[in-house]
Structures are given as structure tokens and as C-alpha cells.
What does this fold into?
Amino acid sequence: MKSILALTLSLALFSCTSEKEIQANIVDVQLVKIDTVSRFPNAMQKLLTWRSEQNVDYVTFEPINSQFRVGTRMKVMVTK
It folds into this structure.
């Protein structure tokens, strides 16, 4: 009985430590547009539109007090 319990416990512990593969790509993007939107009631946020070299647009929301310039380049991680 003790050997079965020890085997079960060790299998449970080692099953949690398996490697997981990240399903994402890193893409170079450039900031092309900044808008101010009301996303939540009584809370304004900036809507940033980013464009990749393949002309795919991505949007992010940032606090109103964050500072970004149009033309800023960065790398972002996007899902596959």
C-alpha cells in the first residue's frame, strides 16, 4: 500500500513540472495612431494602434497619463 501511495504521489508531483511550449511569435510593430476612448464609465484611456511590417494592426489600451509618440517601434508578443 505504501509503495502504491508513493508511486501515485511521485507521478502527481512530476506531472506538474513538464515543459510547456509558448504559442506566440515576437513581431516588430510601429505606433501609427493614438486615440482617447472611454472604455469604462468615468475612466478615459488611450487606444494605441500598432502596425506590423506585414500591415497587420494591433491595439492596446494604456492609462491616460502614459506618454507615447507616434512612430515608436517595439517588439511585441502575439499569439499564433
In short: The radius of gyration is 22 Å.
